[in-house]
Automatic annotation (TrEMBL):
Protein name, UniProt field: Formate hydrogenlyase subunit 4
Segments crossing the lipid bilayer: 89-113, 134-153, 173-192, 239-260, 267-287, 293-310, 322-349, 355-374, 386-407, 422-444
Swiss-Prot/TrEMBL keywords: Lyase, Membrane, Transmembrane, Transmembrane helix
A molecular function (GO) term: lyase activity
The UniProt record lists the keyword Transmembrane: yes
Protein's UniProt keywords contain Transmembrane helix: yes
Length: 446
């Protein structure tokens, strides 16, 4: 009886996914027309276009490869298989053991790869460039999704969607992680919005449109399984189905329309990437001690600044990156006063750097009498107290930064700026120098 109940729930789930996929496909052109400021088409225009395409004859360019007719079939088969597996309104479906992150990621990657291959079937260079741009956008989306879903799977201890969503939703400590993960997954859905390959016509083009419809609802269902699994129905309890199904339809409809509206906007993808980085940071903070993260992050910033100097990047930016890294090390090592001195000096030196470029650079290179020098000394003391090797590495990085930056400066760098710009810049640098002298002056009476 339990098996029969789960089978019926699975069939209802598939029907609900297909129905929502069709509804979103009908509404997507209308919303995009409103977004573009043009007259919206009829609400059933997408269905009429699909019927017309299915009745047209197949066309095949003379330059097409033998796999030309296979790409739409592969794409729609992969997305259709993902739809049969992904949970919708209920957990505990018969297909639940197959609904894992690796399997769904592989099916979606296969569908998207087939679509890109169909684009590349064209012999025109412009299409190839367009396909390359789409591939880059897809790569960003896939990386974000794999990183975020991988982080959630590690936290839940399982790669099954029902296990991930159920465990994370039941643990209040994971609220921030789930929220950032949901924002990252939802906003990067725009990476997967691809046009139909232009050289395809007739039923093959109709297959690509069906694939896009199926893929959209699969991605949407994954997002809902991760961030909004409550209230989800239990496939083994028929009494929970009505509430679970109604709730899922409302959630999928509202979120789907919002994401269709946001898909053409570039800022959404950027915010999604930022949210994915925030998700990783939250997970690391919860799993690793904060001082360890600050020390590791500081090391990365110092290394990035040195690489920028060696590769002849902008000197001020590279030196500032090194000092930011040293400040992060200071916070991690407990040298808070020194780290704050470095941060304030960086701000003052960068504000004054446009007028007194060389003086601002000296302030960023931790040379006396500026505040970064006193701050670096405090950080180095803390580093040597913890480990002599760490202190030696930090000292070598600071000295190497100063040597490379000074060696790259042309002669006669100082110029006489206009007075009205020179006065505030000079005051800022004097403030940075006073910060550097302050620790020594405080220590004199003692």
């Amino acid at each position: 009886m339990m098996l029969l109940s789960r089978l019926i729930a699975t069939l209802i789930d598939i029907a609900a996914l297909l129905g929502m996929a069709a509804a979103l496909a009908l509404l997507a052109p209308v919303l995009r027309a409103v977004h573009d400021g043009v007259a919206p088409p009829r609400w059933r225009q997408a269905w009429d276009d699909l019927v017309k395409l299915s009745r047209k004859r197949r066309l095949r360019p003379g330059f097409a490869s033998p796999l030309y007719p296979a790409w739409p079939v592969i794409a729609v088969t992969a997305s259709g298989a993902a739809l049969l597996v992904v949970p919708g309104f209920a957990f505990g479906l018969i297909t639940a053991p197959l609904a894992t992150v690796p399997l769904l990621a592989g099916l979606l990657a296969l569908a998207l790869g087939a679509r890109l291959a169909a684009w590349l079937e064209s012999g025109e260079g412009g299409r190839g460039a367009r396909a390359a741009g789409a591939a880059l956008r897809l790569a960003i989306g896939l990386v974000v999704w794999l990183v975020v879903l991988g982080a959630l799977a590690v936290r839940a201890g399982s790669d099954r969607l029902d296990a991930i969503g159920g465990l994370l939703a039941a643990t209040p400590a994971n609220t921030a992680l789930v929220l950032l993960a949901g924002i990252a997954l939802a906003l990067t859905l725009g990476c997967y919005e691809l046009d139909d390959p232009a050289d395809y016509a007739g039923p093959e083009r109709a297959l690509f449109r069906i694939e896009a419809m199926l893929r959209r609802i699969v991605l949407l269902a994954i997002v809902l399984d991760m961030i909004a699994p409550v209230p989800m129905a239990d496939a083994g309890l028929a009494a929970t189905w009505p509430v679970g199904l109604l709730t899922w339809i409302i959630k999928a409809g509202v979120l789907g329309l919002i994401l269709i509206w946001l898909a053409p906007r570039r800022f959404a993808i950027r915010l999604g990437v930022a949210a994915a980085i925030g998700c990783l940071v939250v997970m690391l903070v919860q799993a690793v001690a904060v001082p360890t993260l600050l020390i590791a992050g500081g090391g990365v910033l110092v290394l990035a600044g040195l690489i920028g100097l060696i590769r002849r990047g902008a000197v001020l930016e590279a030196a500032g990156c090194v000092q930011l890294g040293v400040a992060s090390l200071g916070f991690g090592l407990g040298a808070t006063d020194g780290a704050l001195l470095i941060l304030v000096t960086i701000a003052l030196a960068r504000l004054a750097g446009g007028t007194f470029a060389s003086a601002g650079l000296i302030a960023l290179l931790a040379l006396p009498p500026f505040g970064a020098f006193a701050g670096d000394v405090a950080v180095l003391r803390a580093a040597f107290r913890l480990d002599i090797g760490l202190g030696g590495v930090v000292l070598a990085a600071v000295v190497l930064t100063a040597a490379i930056a000074l060696a790259r400066q042309p002669p006669a760098r100082f110029t006489m700026p206009p007075a009205r710009r020179a006065v505030p810049a000079a005051l800022l640098l004097l403030a940075a120098a006073a910060l550097g002298l302050l620790p020594w002056l405080i220590a004199l009476p003692a």
